[in-house]
Amino acid sequence: MRHPLPDRRYTYSEYLTWDTRDSTGLVEDRYELIEGVPHLLERSYSTEHQGVSGNLSVQLASYAKGKPCAVLYAPFDVRLNPYSGDDTVVQPDIIAVCDRAMFDERSCVGAPDLAIEILSPITARRDTTLKLQLYRNAGVREYWIVDPETKSIYVYLFESGQFYFATCKDTDIVSVNVLDGCYINLHEVFEH
Length: 192
Prior knowledge:
single chain; alpha+beta; tt1808, chain A; six-stranded mixed beta sheet; three-stranded mixed beta sheet; globular
């Protein structure tokens, strides 16, 4: 199938059959699958989005070096409900997973320890509402929403049925709660 049909629901195995490449072989469209419904992702991101993503990724990857945790970047599939329907596949901008047994050859099978979404005009509403609930319900332990426009990070921590929230500005050094000893310098994240 070339592209998903908007009026039906899909599973991960069907999602894998979509041929979204153009005539030159380049990926034309990327999708997430949320409760079986395809959601088109942006074709490309702004320079600011890419800069913030790169700067944040460098700090996280530096922390993870030599540790059991892996830091991965979009596009990479995260299957949030692989054992009950397998119909929710998202591609967070960045994830950290400390149990490498959760990876198969092409996806993270289950909830990552940390999911990070960097806001863009097209995805902001979905990232701040729908994905917040999806990640919490799936068992993601920590979720960051990064806003390049306001140079802020909104940290959501889900622990033992509790919900904690903090807003951090570009002058802060932020502890990644689920990665022991990991601190992120937000000034370096937002500088270009």
